[in-house]
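Q: what sequence does this backbone want?
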Protein backbone atom coordinates (compact mmCIF):
# COMPACT_ATOMS: atom_id res chain seq x y z
CA UNK A 1 0.00 0.00 0.00
CA UNK A 2 1.56 3.30 -1.05
CA UNK A 3 1.45 6.53 0.94
CA UNK A 4 -1.56 7.99 -0.92
CA UNK A 5 -3.63 4.84 -0.51
CA UNK A 6 -2.73 4.66 3.21
CA UNK A 7 -3.77 8.27 3.66
CA UNK A 8 -7.07 7.76 1.84
CA UNK A 9 -7.74 4.75 4.08
CA UNK A 10 -6.86 6.49 7.37
CA UNK A 11 -8.97 9.63 6.83
CA UNK A 12 -12.42 7.95 6.76
CA UNK A 13 -11.37 5.51 9.51
CA UNK A 14 -10.33 8.37 11.79
CA UNK A 15 -13.54 10.24 10.97
CA UNK A 16 -15.61 7.21 11.93
CA UNK A 17 -13.79 6.84 15.24
CA UNK A 18 -14.31 10.53 16.02
CA UNK A 19 -18.02 10.32 15.15
CA UNK A 20 -18.55 7.20 17.28
CA UNK A 21 -16.66 8.74 20.21
CA UNK A 22 -18.65 11.97 19.84
CA UNK A 23 -21.90 10.01 19.82
CA UNK A 24 -21.06 8.20 23.06
CA UNK A 25 -19.98 11.43 24.74
CA UNK A 26 -23.10 13.37 23.73
CA UNK A 27 -25.31 10.39 24.65
CA UNK A 28 -23.65 10.22 28.06
CA UNK A 29 -24.23 13.94 28.63
CA UNK A 30 -27.85 13.64 27.46
CA UNK A 31 -28.40 10.63 29.75
CA UNK A 32 -27.07 12.46 32.79
CA UNK A 33 -29.28 15.48 32.08
CA UNK A 34 -32.33 13.28 31.49
CA UNK A 35 -31.78 11.35 34.70
CA UNK A 36 -31.43 14.58 36.67
CA UNK A 37 -34.64 16.01 35.19
CA UNK A 38 -36.66 12.83 35.75
CA UNK A 39 -35.47 12.42 39.33
CA UNK A 40 -36.26 16.07 40.03
CA UNK A 41 -39.73 15.65 38.53
CA UNK A 42 -40.44 12.54 40.62
CA UNK A 43 -39.19 14.26 43.75
CA UNK A 44 -41.19 17.45 43.18
CA UNK A 45 -44.30 15.39 42.45
CA UNK A 46 -43.90 13.18 45.53
CA UNK A 47 -43.66 10.15 43.25
CA UNK A 48 -40.17 8.93 44.08
CA UNK A 49 -41.55 6.20 46.35
CA UNK A 50 -44.18 5.15 43.80
CA UNK A 51 -42.32 5.21 40.46
CA UNK A 52 -38.94 3.52 40.16
CA UNK A 53 -36.71 2.38 37.30
CA UNK A 54 -33.53 0.33 36.87
CA UNK A 55 -31.72 2.09 34.06
CA UNK A 56 -31.96 5.21 31.91
CA UNK A 57 -30.38 6.25 28.64
CA UNK A 58 -30.88 9.18 26.28
CA UNK A 59 -29.92 9.93 22.71
CA UNK A 60 -28.57 13.29 21.50
CA UNK A 61 -31.84 13.69 19.56
CA UNK A 62 -33.87 13.89 22.77
CA UNK A 63 -35.34 10.38 23.10
CA UNK A 64 -35.18 9.04 26.66
CA UNK A 65 -35.59 5.33 27.50
CA UNK A 66 -36.30 3.93 30.97
CA UNK A 67 -35.83 0.19 31.58
CA UNK A 68 -37.69 -1.93 34.12
CA UNK A 69 -40.13 0.70 35.38
CA UNK A 70 -42.38 -0.14 38.32
CA UNK A 71 -45.38 1.79 39.62
CA UNK A 72 -46.39 0.64 43.08
CA UNK A 73 -49.08 2.08 45.32
CA UNK A 74 -50.36 0.12 48.28
CA UNK A 75 -51.26 -3.37 46.98
CA UNK A 76 -51.25 -2.38 43.30
CA UNK A 77 -48.20 -2.97 41.15
CA UNK A 78 -47.62 -2.27 37.46
CA UNK A 79 -44.31 -3.15 35.82
CA UNK A 80 -43.18 -1.97 32.39
CA UNK A 81 -40.25 -3.44 30.52
CA UNK A 82 -39.46 -0.22 28.70
CA UNK A 83 -40.77 3.36 28.70
CA UNK A 84 -39.72 5.57 25.80
CA UNK A 85 -40.21 9.32 26.05
CA UNK A 86 -40.17 10.42 22.41
CA UNK A 87 -41.01 14.06 23.14
CA UNK A 88 -41.62 16.25 26.17
CA UNK A 89 -42.41 19.96 26.37
CA UNK A 90 -43.46 21.93 29.41
CA UNK A 91 -43.65 25.70 28.99
CA UNK A 92 -46.16 28.34 30.05
CA UNK A 93 -47.73 28.36 26.58
CA UNK A 94 -47.52 24.70 25.61
CA UNK A 95 -47.66 21.24 27.14
CA UNK A 96 -46.83 18.19 25.07
CA UNK A 97 -45.55 14.67 25.47
CA UNK A 98 -45.27 11.50 23.44
CA UNK A 99 -44.72 8.43 25.64
CA UNK A 100 -44.59 4.77 24.70
CA UNK A 101 -44.83 1.94 27.25
CA UNK A 102 -43.72 -1.49 26.02
CA UNK A 103 -44.32 -4.70 27.92
CA UNK A 104 -46.87 -3.59 30.52
CA UNK A 105 -47.66 -6.21 33.15
CA UNK A 106 -50.77 -4.90 34.88
CA UNK A 107 -52.37 -8.12 36.09
CA UNK A 108 -52.25 -6.71 39.64
CA UNK A 109 -51.88 -3.09 38.71
CA UNK A 110 -53.56 0.23 38.18
CA UNK A 111 -55.14 0.03 34.69
CA UNK A 112 -58.61 -1.28 35.47
CA UNK A 113 -59.51 -2.40 31.95
CA UNK A 114 -56.50 -4.72 31.85
CA UNK A 115 -57.33 -6.29 35.19
CA UNK A 116 -60.98 -6.87 34.42
CA UNK A 117 -60.77 -7.96 30.79
CA UNK A 118 -57.50 -9.86 30.85
CA UNK A 119 -56.88 -11.08 34.36
CA UNK A 120 -60.35 -11.70 35.76
CA UNK A 121 -61.89 -13.16 32.59
CA UNK A 122 -59.19 -15.73 31.84
CA UNK A 123 -57.24 -18.47 33.51
CA UNK A 124 -53.98 -17.48 31.83
CA UNK A 125 -51.71 -14.64 32.82
CA UNK A 126 -52.37 -11.62 30.58
CA UNK A 127 -49.90 -11.08 27.77
CA UNK A 128 -47.84 -7.91 28.19
CA UNK A 129 -49.63 -4.90 26.71
CA UNK A 130 -48.40 -1.87 24.75
CA UNK A 131 -49.47 1.77 25.14
CA UNK A 132 -48.60 4.88 23.13
CA UNK A 133 -49.98 8.19 24.41
CA UNK A 134 -49.57 11.55 22.68
CA UNK A 135 -50.87 14.78 24.22
CA UNK A 136 -50.43 18.25 22.81
CA UNK A 137 -51.95 21.46 24.17
CA UNK A 138 -51.45 25.15 23.39
CA UNK A 139 -53.61 28.18 24.19
CA UNK A 140 -56.09 27.47 21.40
CA UNK A 141 -55.67 23.87 20.27
CA UNK A 142 -55.21 20.50 21.86
CA UNK A 143 -55.16 16.85 20.89
CA UNK A 144 -55.04 13.48 22.63
CA UNK A 145 -54.17 10.27 20.82
CA UNK A 146 -53.90 6.88 22.49
CA UNK A 147 -53.20 3.41 21.12
CA UNK A 148 -53.55 0.64 23.67
CA UNK A 149 -53.06 -2.98 22.61
CA UNK A 150 -53.84 -5.80 25.06
CA UNK A 151 -53.19 -9.14 23.32
CA UNK A 152 -56.01 -11.68 23.72
CA UNK A 153 -58.29 -8.85 24.88
CA UNK A 154 -58.66 -5.94 22.46
CA UNK A 155 -56.95 -3.04 20.72
CA UNK A 156 -58.17 0.46 21.54
CA UNK A 157 -57.51 3.54 19.39
CA UNK A 158 -58.71 6.90 20.71
CA UNK A 159 -58.28 10.41 19.36
CA UNK A 160 -59.70 13.73 20.55
CA UNK A 161 -59.37 17.16 18.91
CA UNK A 162 -59.92 20.04 21.34
CA UNK A 163 -60.37 23.83 21.23
CA UNK A 164 -59.49 26.52 23.78
CA UNK A 165 -57.24 24.47 26.06
CA UNK A 166 -55.80 27.55 27.81
CA UNK A 167 -57.80 26.95 31.06
CA UNK A 168 -56.14 23.54 31.33
CA UNK A 169 -52.71 25.10 30.73
CA UNK A 170 -53.38 27.64 33.47
CA UNK A 171 -54.22 24.87 35.92
CA UNK A 172 -51.12 22.84 35.01
CA UNK A 173 -48.89 25.91 35.30
CA UNK A 174 -49.89 26.17 38.95
CA UNK A 175 -47.98 22.93 39.65
CA UNK A 176 -44.62 24.68 39.55
CA UNK A 177 -45.84 27.22 42.12
CA UNK A 178 -47.55 24.94 44.65
CA UNK A 179 -47.05 21.67 46.49
CA UNK A 180 -48.57 18.45 45.19
CA UNK A 181 -51.39 18.54 47.77
CA UNK A 182 -52.22 22.17 46.98
CA UNK A 183 -52.16 21.38 43.25
CA UNK A 184 -54.49 18.39 43.71
CA UNK A 185 -56.91 20.57 45.72
CA UNK A 186 -56.80 23.26 43.02
CA UNK A 187 -57.52 20.68 40.30
CA UNK A 188 -60.50 19.35 42.27
CA UNK A 189 -61.90 22.85 42.85
CA UNK A 190 -61.18 24.42 39.45
CA UNK A 191 -61.18 21.46 37.08
CA UNK A 192 -64.91 21.65 36.42
CA UNK A 193 -64.69 25.38 35.62
CA UNK A 194 -61.88 24.68 33.16
CA UNK A 195 -64.04 22.11 31.35
CA UNK A 196 -66.71 24.80 30.88
CA UNK A 197 -64.41 26.44 28.34
CA UNK A 198 -62.52 23.55 26.72
CA UNK A 199 -64.43 22.40 23.63
CA UNK A 200 -64.48 19.20 21.61
CA UNK A 201 -64.05 19.52 17.85
CA UNK A 202 -64.23 15.80 17.09
CA UNK A 203 -63.45 12.42 18.56
CA UNK A 204 -62.85 8.94 17.22
CA UNK A 205 -63.09 5.71 19.21
CA UNK A 206 -62.16 2.38 17.64
CA UNK A 207 -62.23 -1.00 19.37
CA UNK A 208 -61.00 -4.21 17.75
CA UNK A 209 -61.84 -7.29 19.77
CA UNK A 210 -59.21 -9.96 20.34
CA UNK A 211 -61.36 -12.55 22.17
CA UNK A 212 -61.77 -10.34 25.25
CA UNK A 213 -65.36 -9.45 24.36
CA UNK A 214 -66.24 -13.11 23.98
CA UNK A 215 -65.02 -13.86 27.52
CA UNK A 216 -66.94 -10.88 28.94
CA UNK A 217 -70.14 -12.05 27.24
CA UNK A 218 -69.68 -15.63 28.49
CA UNK A 219 -69.11 -14.40 32.04
CA UNK A 220 -72.19 -12.18 31.85
CA UNK A 221 -74.31 -15.10 30.68
CA UNK A 222 -72.94 -17.36 33.39
CA UNK A 223 -73.30 -15.05 36.39
CA UNK A 224 -76.30 -12.91 35.44
CA UNK A 225 -78.73 -15.69 34.59
CA UNK A 226 -80.44 -18.08 37.02
CA UNK A 227 -82.46 -20.52 34.94
CA UNK A 228 -85.27 -22.63 36.38
CA UNK A 229 -84.49 -26.32 36.99
CA UNK A 230 -86.72 -27.22 34.06
CA UNK A 231 -84.93 -24.87 31.62
CA UNK A 232 -82.04 -25.62 29.35
CA UNK A 233 -79.14 -23.63 30.90
CA UNK A 234 -77.49 -22.55 27.65
CA UNK A 235 -80.76 -21.54 26.00
CA UNK A 236 -81.81 -19.57 29.08
CA UNK A 237 -78.44 -17.77 29.25
CA UNK A 238 -78.55 -16.85 25.54
CA UNK A 239 -82.15 -15.65 25.82
CA UNK A 240 -81.40 -13.48 28.84
CA UNK A 241 -78.34 -11.91 27.18
CA UNK A 242 -80.31 -11.28 23.96
CA UNK A 243 -82.98 -9.48 25.99
CA UNK A 244 -80.32 -7.27 27.59
CA UNK A 245 -78.88 -6.33 24.22
CA UNK A 246 -82.34 -5.67 22.79
CA UNK A 247 -82.90 -3.28 25.69
CA UNK A 248 -79.70 -1.39 24.81
CA UNK A 249 -80.74 -1.14 21.15
CA UNK A 250 -84.24 0.05 22.07
CA UNK A 251 -82.74 2.74 24.30
CA UNK A 252 -80.48 3.77 21.41
CA UNK A 253 -83.47 4.01 19.04
CA UNK A 254 -85.55 5.86 21.63
CA UNK A 255 -82.92 8.49 22.36
CA UNK A 256 -82.61 9.30 18.67
CA UNK A 257 -86.32 9.14 17.94
CA UNK A 258 -87.71 12.13 15.96
CA UNK A 259 -90.34 12.68 18.67
CA UNK A 260 -87.62 13.04 21.29
CA UNK A 261 -86.96 16.72 21.99
CA UNK A 262 -83.31 16.05 22.71
CA UNK A 263 -82.17 14.13 19.66
CA UNK A 264 -82.97 14.26 15.97
CA UNK A 265 -83.31 11.01 14.08
CA UNK A 266 -82.02 10.50 10.53
CA UNK A 267 -82.83 7.69 8.15
CA UNK A 268 -80.10 5.23 9.13
CA UNK A 269 -80.31 5.59 12.93
CA UNK A 270 -81.68 2.04 13.01
CA UNK A 271 -78.61 0.73 11.17
CA UNK A 272 -76.27 2.54 13.56
CA UNK A 273 -77.97 1.12 16.65
CA UNK A 274 -77.91 -2.37 15.15
CA UNK A 275 -74.23 -1.98 14.37
CA UNK A 276 -73.68 -1.60 18.11
CA UNK A 277 -75.91 -4.63 18.65
CA UNK A 278 -73.82 -6.75 16.25
CA UNK A 279 -70.65 -5.90 18.20
CA UNK A 280 -72.22 -6.80 21.54
CA UNK A 281 -73.54 -10.07 20.08
CA UNK A 282 -70.04 -10.91 18.74
CA UNK A 283 -71.23 -10.75 15.12
CA UNK A 284 -68.79 -7.91 14.39
CA UNK A 285 -65.21 -7.96 15.65
CA UNK A 286 -64.72 -4.19 15.65
CA UNK A 287 -66.65 -1.07 16.58
CA UNK A 288 -65.89 2.50 15.49
CA UNK A 289 -67.65 5.57 16.86
CA UNK A 290 -67.11 9.08 15.48
CA UNK A 291 -68.27 12.12 17.44
CA UNK A 292 -68.50 15.29 15.34
CA UNK A 293 -70.28 18.34 16.79
CA UNK A 294 -71.83 20.74 14.30
CA UNK A 295 -69.89 23.40 16.20
CA UNK A 296 -67.30 22.84 18.98
CA UNK A 297 -69.14 21.80 22.12
CA UNK A 298 -67.73 22.36 25.62
CA UNK A 299 -66.73 19.24 27.54
CA UNK A 300 -68.99 19.99 30.50
CA UNK A 301 -71.98 20.50 28.20
CA UNK A 302 -71.19 17.30 26.32
CA UNK A 303 -70.95 15.22 29.50
CA UNK A 304 -73.81 16.98 31.25
CA UNK A 305 -75.99 16.82 28.16
CA UNK A 306 -75.44 13.10 27.79
CA UNK A 307 -76.42 12.53 31.41
CA UNK A 308 -79.31 14.98 31.69
CA UNK A 309 -80.35 14.99 28.03
CA UNK A 310 -79.75 18.69 27.58
CA UNK A 311 -78.33 18.64 24.05
CA UNK A 312 -79.59 17.70 20.62
CA UNK A 313 -77.91 15.45 18.12
CA UNK A 314 -78.31 12.87 15.41
CA UNK A 315 -77.04 9.35 14.94
CA UNK A 316 -76.15 7.73 11.64
CA UNK A 317 -74.04 5.00 10.13
CA UNK A 318 -71.68 5.03 7.17
CA UNK A 319 -69.26 2.28 6.19
CA UNK A 320 -69.98 0.38 9.44
CA UNK A 321 -68.98 3.43 11.50
CA UNK A 322 -71.37 4.83 14.09
CA UNK A 323 -71.35 8.63 14.02
CA UNK A 324 -72.87 10.96 16.59
CA UNK A 325 -73.28 14.59 15.59
CA UNK A 326 -74.32 17.09 18.25
CA UNK A 327 -76.32 20.09 17.10
CA UNK A 328 -76.86 23.58 18.45
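A:
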Amino acid sequence: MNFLSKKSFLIPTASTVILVAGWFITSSIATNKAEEKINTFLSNSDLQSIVQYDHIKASPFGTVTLDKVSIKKESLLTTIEKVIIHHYENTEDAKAFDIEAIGIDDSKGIIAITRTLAHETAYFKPTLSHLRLQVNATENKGSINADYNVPHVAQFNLSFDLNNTKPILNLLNQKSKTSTKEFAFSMAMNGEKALEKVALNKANIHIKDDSGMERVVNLFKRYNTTPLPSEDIEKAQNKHYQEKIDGIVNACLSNFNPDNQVFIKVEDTKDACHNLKDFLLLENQSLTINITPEHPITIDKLLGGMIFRGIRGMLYQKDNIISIEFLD
